[in-house]
Structure formats: structure tokens, C-alpha cells
């Protein structure tokens, strides 16, 4: 099963467009946990178990593990998700962006070491930085397009040679030239619903959008869903991380994470029904 097939299956079987981000900050772990690598893995497994009934997949952010020297714990976490929830895809949030053999090694890191179903990448260095990932035809490549941070406008709104903003030029290149095996998606932030709608119009219904920015970043769920869903009412991985992970630091942290994940899933589904 390809990444796209697995994702489409999860949208249907889970009745969810919620992607749960796994960004373990040692300083924000529950008070009962020590700040160490073992606790990081225990915490992330607990979040996965709590939120899996309400999610269409998981998005571990590699920097939160690498900064702790916890790469092996990330490998164990990905293996746990594959073994326990094999129907839910893993999107490794790495935002890699290099060329040639370096990009090949980044692809091997994501797809072989961590067994990710998809990985986020940066298009700044052009097709050379994307092409090595295409060799894994069953895996996904999620390309930065219109990011949720305010500073993204510094470059993403620069006009291309055709007079359109760079983020729309990226969307067109991915849809028309780079997506040769139908395995690409785009990152478009929930904090900019007007741009989400423009990207969806540009790329059509088939391409999935990874949409960060709801929850702690304040993206509006109804506006996000209205702007980015496809004709089938799916087409999006709406990511929430901190709001779910750190819903509570007390003994009830798993129950509270499950509650917030469920409520977020329900809010998304309510917006889909409008």
C-alpha cells in the first residue's frame, strides 16, 4: 500500500482528518516523568495510544528527538506505531532540503531508518532536492508551500517570473512537474485560509495537504476545512501538536490528551458537514 492509499484508507476508517504531532519537549513532560530519553519514548507512546482512535496519522518532529540524542527512541516509536496501529501513516517532520547524495541519505534516514510513510522536505534548492525521494514510489513527499509562521511571507510572497507569489509557483511545479508518481503533498498553514483555498484550487482534488497551525497556533478549524477540503470532503491532514500533547501535566495527562484529540476531531468533522 502506498502512502496515499494508506492515508485515504485512514481518512475513511477513522472518520478523521486529524494528524497528531509528536513534539516531545522534556521540560513539558508530565510531572510524574523524569526528563530523560526513556520518558520521552514512554510519553509519546502514551499520546499515541490516547489519540489513535481519533487520528488519521502521526507526525513526529525529528528535532525534538535529535536535540535529546533520542534518535533510537524515535526509531522505537515509529516501530511501535507500525506494529500497534499499522493502518495509521507516519509523516516524519524533518523539512530536509539538500541535493544529490546528501538528499539520498536523508531519504534513507526517513524511509529506512525511521520507516516513515512520508517526510516533509523544503523545495528551496529546486527539483534536485526532491528527486532522490521519488525513488521510494510507495512513500510520500510533503513539500513546504505556504507555512504557518509569520516570517514565511518573507520569501513565499515574493513574486515569481510569472508575477504570482512564490508559494503558488511551488504548488504549480509540484502538481504539474514533480508529482510524477502521485506521491507528493504540500504543507499549507491553517493560519492562512485564503492561501489554502488558492493552493487547493491550483493543485486540484488529488493532492493531500498537511495543514499545521490549529490548536496552540490559533488556526480557525471551520475556515481551514472550508478552504482545503477536496470534493470528497477529505484531502487534508490537519495537524495539532501542543494542544493535545500538553493538555495536562498531571496524572490524567493521557485522558486529557484523548479528550482534546476527540474534541478536535469532532470540530473538524462538524466543519466538514457544513
Describe the protein in words.
There is one protein chain. The chain has one domain (3-273): TIM Barrel (Alpha-Beta Barrel). Helices cover 44% and strands 14% of the residues. It contains 11 helices and 8 strands. It has helices at residues 3-14, 37-51, 62-66, 71-84, 100-113, 153-156, 166-178, 193-203, 221-228, 242-245, 253-273, and strands spanning 18-22, 57-60, 91-96, 118-121, 140-146, 184-188, 209-211, 236-240. It has an 8-stranded parallel beta sheet with strand order 2-1-8-7-6-5-4-3, with helices on both faces. It is globular. GO terms for molecular function: orotidine-5'-phosphate decarboxylase activity. InterPro entries: Aldolase_TIM, OMPdecase_AS, OMPdecase_type-2, OMPdeCOase_dom, RibuloseP-bd_barrel. Its EC number is 4.1.1.23. Residues 17-257 form the Orotidine 5'-phosphate decarboxylase domain.
Descriptive terms for the model:
eight-stranded parallel sheet, alpha/beta, single chain, 14% strand, Orotidine 5'-phosphate decarboxylase, TIM Barrel, 274 residues
Summarize it:
The chain has helices at residues 3-14, 37-51, 62-66, 71-84, 100-113, 153-156, 166-178, 193-203, 221-228, 242-245, 253-273, and strands spanning 18-22, 57-60, 91-96, 118-121, 140-146, 184-188, 209-211, 236-240. With 274 residues, the protein is of the alpha/beta class. It has a single domain (3-273), classed as Aldolase class I (TIM Barrel, Alpha-Beta Barrel).
